[in-house]
Amino acid sequence: MRRNMIKAVLITGLLAMASTANAEPPVSGELLAFQCAGCHGFNGHSVGPATPSLAGFPKEYFVDTMMAYKQGDRHATIMDRVAWGYTREQFEAMAEFFAAQPFIPARQEFDAELAASGAAIHDQHCNTCHSEGGTYPEPDTAQIAGQWAPYLRDSFEDFLVNDRPQPRGMQRRLNGLSAEDIEALVHYYASQQDPAAYVHAD
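User: That's the sequence. What structure does it adopt?
Assistant: Structure tokens below.
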């Protein structure tokens, strides 16, 4: 009987080892994120003015955005096709990685006079949801301050033509702004280049 018990224990151990060997390896958020570097830069620090920096993105916002691309609720030149090849679990792993990276604002030129006008417009129309001058990443949105100006202009255009999902309140506020107001906002966000001003969401 003792021999049978030892045999049973050995068989159980072998089955457990086989199960472990055949299990999927843990998803590496860093490895997955590296595949984004061609457009979004190493560790999510974009060096291309047409693409946003992903470093410091809140996890919830990143996953929701990628799932929107995957499900066809949001469109871009290539992102909806890229997102189709990933699972939600992989998006969550990437989100963990990007959220842990410090945000580094883009070094770029801006018009100081327009930036000053944009600061006043932001305080009046945008600060409720994009607090701390747009430097603070809320759970449902990322930093807008410090992103590349061309990317910001493209994003505003997408919102204005309803080519990108947005809260109803944002649509109402944007419709009340002129093209000059929006350009001033772009220069205001582009002007915020002090890395110390950017913090992670809790």
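The mean pLDDT is 85.
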